[in-house]
Known about the structure:
This protein is an alpha/beta fold. It has helices at residues 16-30, 58-82, 102-122, 167-179, 194-200, 202-219, and strands at 35-38, 85-91, 127-133, 184-187. α2 (58-82) runs parallel beside α3 (102-122) and α5 (194-200) packs across α6 (202-219).
Amino acid sequence: MSNGSALPVETDITDIKSCQNLISKTIYEFGQIDYLILNAGLSMWALFDQIKDISKFNELANVNFNGSVNSIHCSLESLKESSGTIVSISTAQAFIGFPKATFYSASKHALKGFLEGLELETKGKIQFINVYLGWIKETNLRANAIGPNGEKIGDSHHKHSNKAVELDVCTDMIIRGIKLKKKNIFIPSYLKYIPFVKIFFNKWLFKKISNAVDSEELENT
């Protein structure tokens, strides 16, 4: 955005040339890259032993990890020049695996590790902000999640928990956190305790997560 204007550029982040086109057009229009928001994502909802063809889940890694890496690689020099910021819109599953989301959790773990390594390499030339989300309403992430047969599950199979956060509330919290230059933004805020609880109360946390997923499944049957 610049003076209230926006430049829409259709982009396939899994295609490096498409990412290069996005960044080139953005720099041509606005002069530099100040913020890179990593928000594209693809989810799943399937037990691993029920998946028919695991090759159909390669797209998860291509979008969630490779797509982010492509976007960063194409914009890295401009971000260094502007002392810009990379904002990773991630999930609590970057800290801990979830049932029915094995590939998804793995892709988020991978991206978290990549960004931590890149932050060390750039030595303060770029700022890094991590946003860790729980369940968010009013997005198409659930409907587009990949099921055991490799197809999208749609709205009827997997709906949001009543604990999910409204999208506009989530957006406001992210913007506020970026303005305040928070290193980590947790939505809802209790997610910040997951790393601590995972270390000291691992069995309890795993049971809690499993029960929550099972409970949500029952609510939507």
